[in-house]
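# nightly structure sweep
# worker-07 picked up a monomer target from the shared queue
# config: single-sequence mode, recycle default, output format = structure tokens
# input follows
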Amino acid sequence: MASIRYNPHGQKGRISYNSDIVSGIIALSLQETEGIELVPSKSKGIKVNFEKEGIFADISVIAHYGYGVPELAFAIQQTVKQMVESMTKYRIAKVDVHVQSVIFPEPTPPAPPVQDENETQRA
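# output follows
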């Protein structure tokens, strides 16, 4: 569990966030990114480590076919950084994104061959 001292109005006190809360914020931020899905297992999808330099996040996702992997990874990094830092006042030190697989669209079955009118009349 991590702690942060926050003193908006001169009051003494402390606000603490545990890794589950930060992981939830990261999961929420991933919903903002189009073209990905979080790896189904929560423990495998998001890992958060609190260090002196800031939060180190390790995120595993599944990409949808047709999206550029580098662009997706960059969008994830930016969204996670922005949301976690704005909602918790923690600093994000590093966001590692692992693309585990790609979801391809379902193949459409081939259309049945079109018969010529002359062929149906002969039969």
